[in-house]
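Please fill in the sequence for the structure shown.

STRUCTURE ENCODING:
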């Protein structure tokens, strides 16, 4: 047995790359119908937290974007507040940390999500995990990844709790407790997972293999999945909010994800990174091998709309040429098109189809293609080019109109407005 020197995290590996201390039959607890805070407290009640007494516990919610409670984009503050309270009562020293997507100020994201006040009321530190230098760690047996640059807090805390939102995801099927740990990768190194070359001998998408690789070393000790308001369709940020009022808890993030998948109307076996990670022994996704409490948890299954397979249906007359882009440019472009599709077409009245390129993998591009993001810079001659990594909506509007224009939602989700009422209806106070 070898230690990879990740104190407290479950990274004790056998020579054949299998974690050794997974329970044979993981337990998962589901609570539904009482609001974010009460659901979470109830779901954590049967969980043995005695190991955390006198130890440091890092809570890793999904607050990678600037969006309010109830948007389905960020973890509900009531869930995070309940986890803080439960682990504190168990004797732990607790902090909340996040490394957001490129271009997002994590302090703004904490504030918008209601975490700043929830943490302040409890005297719980909020950590910008990008503010210090990264630490590089190997990924033994990795197929798409061999090293990761992780935020130092991941190594300094004794335990990590992954607290994602239940979301569909346009590139990875779903994003839950396993994938949420990607937010422990330092700054721009997250982007690298979206820009990997094909994996030799595999027909899987490199991002799926990379998340399965990551799950061997960046594995949370507990998963608390927030299904208060999830996201269906075009997750992780451009879908529709989907109230469910459920919370799922387990020590095995794969088992928690498998149960959450079922609640969302899908199967973990259909999610490549979960299937690949489970096949390598990083967790259990076979529901027959998981003890789920209560027995009638399937009564709460409420299928989420899956991500659309073909975005050109959503945006007629617009063709997106995407070669090796990352999710930051993809989400920027999606959100931009959802708001400004018609305005974009109006700027090019003579074209039947407006072509837009993102990503670094284009050998050539058709004349007149709108090039978005620094990755397309080498094709800029004679074309409209929008710099940025990723650019924001104002830059795209300015580039296509030829005059300075502002997009009031720069850096924010389109859902950042008008959702507070729904938020309050669906979430109890932290
Ligand atoms: S330009 Fe866009 S696709 Fe390229 S690294 Fe930056 S965000 Fe990703």
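FILLED IN BY: designer on duty
SEQUENCE:
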């Amino acid at each position: 047995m070898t230690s990879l020197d990740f104190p407290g995290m479950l990274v004790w590996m056998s020579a054949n790359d299998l974690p050794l201390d997974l329970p044979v039959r993981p337990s998962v607890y589901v609570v539904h119908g009482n609001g974010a805070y009460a659901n979470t407290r109830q779901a954590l009640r049967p969980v043995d937290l005695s190991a955390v007494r006198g130890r440091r516990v890092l809570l890793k919610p999904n607050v990678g974007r600037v969006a309010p409670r109830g948007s389905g984009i960020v973890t509900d503050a009531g869930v995070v507040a309940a986890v803080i309270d439960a682990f504190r009562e168990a004797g732990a020293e607790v902090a909340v940390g996040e490394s957001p997507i490129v271009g997002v100020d994590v302090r703004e994201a904490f504030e918008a999500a209601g975490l700043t006040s929830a943490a302040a009321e409890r005297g719980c530190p909020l950590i910008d995990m990008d503010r210090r230098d990264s630490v590089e760690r190997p990924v033994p047996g990795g197929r798409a990844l061999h090293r990761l640059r992780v935020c130092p807090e991941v190594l300094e805390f004794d335990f990590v709790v992954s607290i994602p939102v239940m979301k569909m995801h346009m590139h990875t099927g779903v994003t839950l407790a396993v994938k949420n740990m990607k937010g422990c990768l330092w700054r721009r190194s997250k982007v690298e997972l979206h820009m990997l070359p094909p994996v030799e001998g595999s027909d899987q998408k490199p991002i799926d293999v990379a998340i399965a690789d990551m799950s061997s070393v960046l594995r949370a000790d507990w998963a608390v999945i927030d299904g208060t308001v999830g996201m269906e369709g075009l997750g992780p940020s451009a879908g529709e909010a989907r109230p469910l009022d459920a919370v799922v808890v387990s020590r095995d993030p794969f088992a928690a994800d498998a149960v959450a998948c079922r609640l969302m109307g899908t199967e973990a076996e259909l999610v490549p990174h979960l299937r690949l990670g489970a096949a390598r022994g990083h967790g259990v996704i076979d529901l027959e091998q998981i003890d789920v409490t209560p027995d009638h948890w399937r009564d709460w299954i409420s299928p989420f709309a899956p991500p659309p397979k073909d975005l050109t249906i959503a945006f007629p007359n617009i063709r997106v040429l995407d070669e090796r882009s990352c999710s930051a440019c993809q989400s920027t472009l999606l959100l931009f098109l959802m708001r400004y599709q018609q305005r974009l077409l109006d700027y090019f009245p003579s074209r039947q189809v407006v072509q837009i390129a993102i990503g670094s993998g284009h050998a050539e591009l058709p004349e007149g293609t709108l090039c978005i993001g620094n990755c397309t810079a080498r094709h800029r001659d004679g074309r409209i080019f929008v710099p940025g990594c990723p650019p924001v909506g104002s830059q795209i509007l300015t580039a296509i109109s030829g005059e300075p224009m502002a997009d009031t939602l720069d850096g924010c989700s389109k859902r950042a407005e008008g959702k507070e009422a729904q938020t309050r209806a669906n979430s109890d106070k932290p």
